[in-house]
Amino acid sequence: MAEKIIIDTDIGDDVDDALAIALALRSPELEVAGITTVYKNVAQREQLALTLLDVYGRRDIPVAVGFGKPIRYETDTSAIPHQCRNLRNKIERNCDSDAVSFIIESVRKDPAIILVAIGPYTNIGMAVKLAPEIMRGVRVVGMGGAFSAVYPEYNIMCDPEAVNILLKSECRIEMVGLDVTVKCVLSPDDLAGIKQCREAEHQFLGGLIDIWMDTSIGKKVTLHDPLTVAYLIDPGILTMKMEPVDVELEGTFTRGLTAVLRTPFRQRKPLPPDNVNVAVDVDFPRLRSLVLRRVFGIQ
């Protein structure tokens, strides 16, 4: 039986969000019950998500608009994400609910639903804050943090306060950090193979990859978010470990840092309880094969 998921996404910047959604749509192990947009220009992100669903013939999946601003700081909510600049035809909205209400109501109806966080955590943090009883015990599987490295990761850094709410909650949290996802880079040969794919959905994703390659600094496609979705399809792709995790809310250079509190230098007794199942290693060949096969039909 397929597991129901809601994908909370900042689709429109890195191409990995679109690839992750496509992987979920092409995987019978998962049932996408909804998509929610988060951070900055959430209305444009909604349009890109709706366009992707239209290409895949899945306009039945509701897309709910979420918070553009993080909890603590202001941010520019009007800038057009790079991958949204080629959108031409506006697609009619298919969900009247806001993202936070959609998440809360979906969990209330089905506590087994999984929240897949592949953007900043504002929507999920606010859902936990507003409805802690309903959200208690919900499974949250997210891309975020860095647990064997000392630097803030983007999804966490954008709204550490929302992450703090989640970490202090009674949700079941699993996180795939940047220190693991950076091992998952498609090769030039992989990208050349994708360019040869001719189906409409392949062409659409290929266009988004081209935009990403033109606008990104690194000029490479890293499967950050697809790895998070792939873990739900094939848990053996990741090696996981329970850890006591907290997030830094202050600091000029450390705000948004995810800290594993079990270290040989920390003398706190007792240690805080393990609260996050953290990814510590990845089987990249297994991930690559799954993504290329499911999303692009490349064997």
TrEMBL record:
| Keywords of the record | Glycosidase, Hydrolase
Family matches, as InterPro entries: Inosine/uridine_hydrolase_dom, IUNH, Ribo_hydro-like
Q: Which Pfam families match?
A: IU_nuc_hydro
Does the UniProt entry include the keyword Hydrolase?
yes
Q: Would you tell me the Gene Ontology cellular component terms? A: cytosol
The keyword Hydrolase is assigned to this record:
yes
- What Gene Ontology terms for biological process does this UniProt record contain? purine nucleoside catabolic process
Q: Any idea where the Inosine/uridine-preferring nucleoside hydrolase domain is?
A: 5-287
A Gene Ontology molecular function term of the record? purine nucleosidase activity
Q: Which PANTHER family match?
A: INOSINE-URIDINE PREFERRING NUCLEOSIDE HYDROLASE, URIDINE NUCLEOSIDASE
| Protein name listed in UniProt | Nucleoside hydrolase
Q: What is the lineage of its organism?
A: Bacteria, Pseudomonadati, Spirochaetota, Spirochaetia, Spirochaetales
